[in-house]
Amino acid sequence: MTQYSRPNEFDLIKKYLSPLTQAEVGAALLRDDAAVVKTKKNYQLVVTMDTLISDVHFVEETPPDLIASKCLRVNISDLAAMGADPAYYSLSLSLPDSGNVKYDASWINTFSQGLAIEQDLYNVTLIGGDTVSTPGPLSLTITAFGWVKKDCEIKRSGANIGDLVYVSGTIGDAYLGLSTLRKNNIKIEQPHLNYVIDRYLRPQPRIDLGRRLTGFASSAIDISDGFSQDLGHICTASHVSATIRASDIPLSETARAMVEVNSKLLEELISGGDDYELLFTVPVKFQKNISQLAKELEIALTQVGNIEPLLDSHLVTFLDSKGIKVDIASSGYQHF
Fold first, then answer.
1. Domain boundary assignment for the chain
2. DSSP labels for 105-133?
3. DSSP per residue over 206-222, as a string?
4. For 23, 183, 203, 225, which has the most beta carbons within 10 A of its beta carbon?
5. Which residues contact 128 (CB under 8 A, 6 or more apart)?
6. Cross-strand bridge partners of residue 44
7. Range in 49-53, 94-98, 227-231 with the lowest mean pLDDT
């Protein structure tokens, strides 16, 4: 464990973070105590926050630009689930003063460049935050802000009996990526290895999908802690249950090939988390609209089950291809 030098707090902010605020005059180049932003008529402000910690949410040796990408994208994904357009974010950056990774000027520069790329990609702007030194580990907290038209936000609590359950993209790739990074006895050959690691480090917030689901989706959530657990959150908030056809849950070619070799892996993929796909419910009358939306956005939107009455405390039931109940853990990722 060695100590190293880096810019002081004010030089760090001026050189690396202030340039990220130039698109928003209310941020005042981070020279004031707080940012002042204008409200939008007939819109509501959606606010979310996530903290990422080294060796909990990413391995310590992850390149700083990829850390920047992941920490911003997971917050933007929350906005997507609400049907909101991302606008601003604030960043609390706790940098270790010693350790195996050198959090020096070079690290900070690469990290800030990664943020700049993500800002351009998702049309967001840094407006404030905090920087501190810590004995460790590296910790990053982002608060993201987005706009949604008044009374058009998509909540977890709107699912109704008879609704169809949909999921975007594919499930389980991020779990495979994390497992390989942590060397959890999962072997994946190239080029599939790079694909699953990228899915873990660079999730794809479904901003366009979330925006277009407004008016169709009765509820939505982004899959951060696992398909089964996050669907349970919708069921809890909506006072319903769900029945899911496990064989219909969309998997990538890489994941499906691995499940064919080891069928028990499916449970881990469903519960693994870090997918950041959208899981949502839709009234049957909008089924054709969702099919059309999938074509327009060129995103796989797979109908995997149905919303049913809540008869007991069991929220999510999984069925195999023959309609027989299968046991799949709903615990997902536990933060405590």
1. 2-149, 156-326
2. HHHHHHHHHHHHHHHHHHT-EEEEEEEEE
3. -HHHHHHHTTT-SEEEE
4. 203
5. 27, 30, 34, 35, 90, 91
6. 148
7. 94-98
Assigned CATH topology for domain 2-149: 60s Ribosomal Protein L30; Chain: A; (3.30.1330)
Let me know: does 153 contact 218? Beta carbons within 8 Å.
no
Q: What is the pLDDT of residues 211-262, one digit of tens each?
A: 999 999 999 999 999 999 999 999 999 999 999 999 999 999 999 999 998 8
Q: Report residue 30 as tokens.
A: 């981070």
**CA–CA gap between residue 194 and residue 199 (Å, rounded):** 9
Classify residue 27 by its DSSP letter: G
Residue 175 near residue 269, CB atoms below 8 Å? yes
The predicted model scores a pTM of: 0.93
The token pair that represents 19 in the structure block: 């340039």
Element (H, E) at 99: strand 98-99
**CATH tag for 156-326 (out of 3.40.1550.10, 3.40.50.720, 3.90.650.10, 3.30.470.10):** 3.90.650.10
